Amino acid sequence: MNFSDSEIVASILGEVGYKPTRDMESADLIMINTCSIREKAEDTVRKRLQVFNKQKRQRPDLMIGVLGCMAERLKAKFLEEEKLVDIVVGPDAYRDLPKLVAGAEDGEKGVNVFLSREETYADISPLRLDSNGVTAFISIMRGCDNMCSFCVVPYTRGRERSRSAFSILAEAQDLFERGFREVTLLGQNVDSYKWENPETGTLVHFAQLLEMVAKLHPDLRIRFSTSHPKDITDEVLHTIATYDNICKYIHLPVQSGNSRILELMNRTYDREWYMDRIRAIRRILPDCAVSSDIITGFCSETEEEHRDTLSMIEFANYSMSYMFTYSERPGTPAAKKYADDISRK
Ligand code: SF4
Fold it and tell me: Which residues of the chain have pLDDT under 70?
């Protein structure tokens, strides 16, 4: 999602004459797009900023901007903590960048962390960065309304909103005509995609969107991420089965295999529900690969509950999984309500 956002930012800055470069020494402006999902991601950003700050000490005209979730989380505090940063911009305020950069050129520091209920950047054609000319991301929605207790995303990316299906189709068509052959439809929770056609009043859900993109051309392969176990419907699975060009791969984060922990995480499904979804995938899409995200050591998790996660890994037969120890994020419900009481050992 951040990679996709960086392409939107590059496009917005392109309008005011900035071009991307891989050469830090020749850059007039360095933007770092940040993630807050784990403490380690934020540590990485701070380390990277030290490198940029060194540049800035040698070249005081260099401007440094911080984008994304960490900008949103820390807001103006970022400017106090990181004295050499000029601009702090949250995920919904990228249209304001030309103004903020112009201010920074005149030596003014700028912050915009306004979270929107409507912004989807639908009309912005992303500038494909580091493109291989074959695969591309298409952002179909922004934000998240699920309040998983461990997760900072609802606070940094705001409320869920879906992008116009017409603009998604136009972007996919344009990519295909430019030679791209695989698109990944992106959203925090793609299965809750919902857009109302203003002309007809009909609702387009994710299954219908998938179908519309699949029908553009049989040579365009379609992927999507991320699915939420509570929302992935049989209708979506049947759509995947119907079209050869929708890749038979679903990223379906379980987070924990234990129902008590899932409840504490506010994932709104339990072990049985998740197993039922896996069974549905196996029934409707027998060759489908499934991957997952897993957190271990969530507040109060016992050895036995951890073993439920291990048995889920066997049951679901994941092709791969992103697996992490729990990282408490400030301001989340879990940080407020539960003690982070599992030792690393
Ligand atoms: S679904 Fe849960 S884990 Fe995923 S972004 Fe939304 S709140 Fe975070």
Answer: none
Asked if 69 and 47 count as a contact pair (C-beta separation under 8 A), the reply is no
Closest protein CA for atom 2 of ligand 1: 148
Q: Which atom of ligand 1 is nearest to the CA of 226?
A: 4
- Expressed in angstroms and rounded, the spacing between residue 22 Cα and the centre of ligand 1 is 32
Last residue of a domain, one of 59, 79, 112: 112
Would you state the pLDDT for residue 148?
Answer: 97
**342 within some domain:** no
- Best of 36, 149, 153 for a ligand 1 pocket test (most atoms within 8 Å of beta carbon): 153
For residue range 107-165, what is the model confidence (pLDDT) as tens digits? Answer: 999 999 999 999 999 999 999 998 999 999 999 999 999 999 999 999 999 999 999 99
Please give the distance of CA 211 from its chain centroid, rounded to a whole number. 22
Residue 140 and residue 63 in one domain: no
Ligand 1 atom with the smallest distance to the CA of 154 is 7
Q: What pLDDT is attached to residue 130?
A: 86
The β-bridge relationship of strands 203-205 and 194-196 is antiparallel
- Do 202 and 72 fall into the same domain? no
- Whether 167 and 108 map to the same domain: the answer is no
Among all chains, which residue has been given the structure tokens 């960490």?
A: 70
Residue closest via CA to ligand 1's atom 4 equals 188
Q: What pLDDT is recorded for position 83?
A: 87
Contact 212, 220 (CB under 8 A): no
In a domain, 343, yes or no: no
Lining ligand 1 with CB less than 6 A are 144, 146, 148, 151, 153-154, 188-189, 228
In terms of DSSP bridges, do strands 289-296 and 249-251 run parallel, antiparallel, or are they unpaired? Answer: parallel
